[in-house]
Write a structure and sequence with these properties.
Shape: globular
Structural class: mainly alpha
Largest sheet: none
Number of strands: 0
Oligomer: single chain
Strand content: under 5%
Distance between the termini: 13 Å
């Protein structure tokens, strides 16, 4: 149960920055729209994997969730305005031991 709470907390950290930025006034950006489109697509995948893991917390679903989170963070790192998310959150997902759910 403790691991699920930790994963949930990391999940919240990932999206907290994205939600905060989406509430700000839109500014001109040097980042292409493709970058944002990729982030949205990867966010949808992460939400789906998170829901699957919440309903069935297995090591396989944990690994799938971890991969989706790292894919989103890697893509965010490439977007100038979201790159800070990688530094703050990636290490948690890298260190997550999904074998705890066997």
């Amino acid at each position: 149960m403790k691991k699920i709470k930790q994963i949930s907390a990391a999940f919240v950290l990932i999206f907290a920055g994205a939600f905060a930025v989406s509430c700000e006034e839109e500014e001109t950006s040097s980042v292409s729209d493709d970058c944002y489109d990729d982030l949205i697509e990867l966010s949808d995948i992460l939400v789906a994997r998170s829901n699957t893991f919440s309903n069935n917390p297995t090591s396989s679903n944990c690994s799938s969730l971890r991969t989706a989170a790292l894919n989103l963070l890697d893509a965010a790192q490439d977007c100038d305005e979201y790159g800070y998310l990688y530094e703050e959150t990636a290490q948690y997902w890298i260190d997550l031991d999904c074998s705890d759910f066997d």
